Amino acid sequence: MKFRKAKQDDKEEILALYQSLIGTPYCAWGNGYPGEQEFDYDMKRNALFCMENEDGEIIGTITVDEDPQVEALTCWSKTLQPSAELSRLGVRTDMQNQGIARQLLQHGMKELKKQGEIREFPISVLFAEVKLRLSIGWRRRKLSGSIPAAAR
Questions:
Q1: What are the backbone angles phi and psi of residue 88, rounded to the nearest 5°?
Q2: pTM to 2 decimals?
Q3: Residue closest to 18 by CA, chosen among 93, 125, 111, 83
Q4: What distance in Å separates the CA atoms of residue 12 and residue 81, rounded to the nearest whole number?
Q5: 71 pLDDT above the threshold of 90
Q6: What residues contact 94, with CB distance under 8 A and at least 6 apart?
Q7: 34: preceding bond cis by omega (within 30 degrees)
Q8: Could you tell me where the beta strands, DSSP code E, fall in the chain?
Q9: Is the dihedral of CA 113, 115, 120, 126 positive or negative?
Q10: What Cα–Cα distance (Å) separates residue 113 from each residue in 41, 45, 56, 116, 152?
Q11: What is the pLDDT of residue 70?
Q12: Could you report the per-residue pLDDT of 92-142, keeping only the tens digit for each?
């Protein structure tokens, strides 16, 4: 499997992956989200990454970026800035439960590290991801998770 930056040519395949996940267990997406607008926004910021299998098919995606919108939230602690976001994590349904999401998160954390000296970042839980977080080495610790050794 190969982790790489998404390309404009991947648009149709990534949008189809997003849509295929809507309505599946633990997926909070719906009503056209994520769609073309999010794809274009992520591509403009060079924030969209994907995992492809040996046949070159996209089997998972993740968005990796600093997020000034999160920092602007009044509930956000200034001590957690600069913030970074790993979002729009999705794995093709026939490839789930094989560690792909864990790999995407690990690669995403490595990418954040490349972009700057982000060693800790807040974790926001939108759906049941506790098992996944624990499997990549995160432990409950205040509001942030450290980058596990495997992602360094």
A1: 45, 45
A2: 0.74
A3: 93
A4: 34
A5: no
A6: none
A7: yes
A8: 2-5, 48-52, 58-66, 84-91, 120-122, 144-146
A9: negative
A10: 22, 17, 26, 5, 8
A11: 64
A12: 999 999 999 989 988 988 888 787 745 555 544 443 344 444 445 554 444
